[in-house]
Amino acid sequence: xxxGVRLQKFGIIIxxxxxxxxxxxxxxxxxxxxxxxxxxRRSIIMENLSHIFHNERLSNRDLAHYxxxxxxxxARIMHDFLRLKFMRKKILIESVESSGLDNLSQALSxxxxxxxxxxxxxxxxxxxxxxxALGFKMNALVEETSPEMFQxxxxxxxxxxxxxxxxxxAGYAFLHIxxxxxxxxxxxxxxxxxxxxxxxxxxxxxxxxxxLGSILVRRHIPVLIGHMVLNYSGRRRYSAAVTEPRVFxxxxxxxxxxxxxxxxxxxxxxxQWFVFQRGWCS
Length: 282
Hints:
Blueprint: H1 3-17, H2 20-37, H3 39-52, H4 60-83, H5 89-94, E1 96-99, H6 102-108, E2 114-118, H7 124-133, E3 138-142, H8 147-157, E4 163-166, H9 170-180, E5 183-187, E6 197-201, E7 204-208, H10 212-219, E8 223-230, E9 238-242, H11 251-268, E10 280-281
Parallel strand pairs: 1-9, 2-5, 2-8, 3-4, 3-5
Antiparallel strand pairs: 6-7, 7-10, 8-9
């Protein structure tokens, strides 16, 4: 068993044994510690932030503030992800205030399934579990990590009914949701496969996954964008929203629509965009 899996399992025990508020505080402190310890990850987040705020010309001090918040927020959402192992459905549902969920039902009314695009923003795994707990037939394309970590994560993801598909099985996932008229969640803001297309994003060139728009156009699949972020002002832990469904006849129109939403959401929640891998093209 690798150390990553051991730490995750230890984290589950801590999350189970401690009161939620105390465990959340410890997670925040660990996030702050990681900010100072992980210099390479810190430099990646700083680069992301410099592109996001290129027009504002923020000082390094201001960028460092957002960077610290990113590490802290990531530790907090990971704490919640680990809690999915034992969390009751009622607690999960009550922790989220949401809007636009009827748009998912509208998209499914076509009988052709639908694709729910999300980003590495907020708590995407928690969002999938939340929708599955509400009764939506959820599927998700997920990144393939080490076998032990992959199995551990998928046990969390599938506890409330979500069905994960590794990226290597993407074709099967699309056929399944079309045939069964279900929802497929896709993370579309980072080129995980390594064969992405270059697109203008903020002040730089960023790689996005290749082929998603082509499938949506060719199959006439309705597509929506959803997000779930930590809620600083409301009484519930998370705030979630889903856009109205769209069906695209041109891949370029889909690309423009996607990039516009990525920029809008990331700019609104810059300290909850958890991309710790380099993605900007020189």
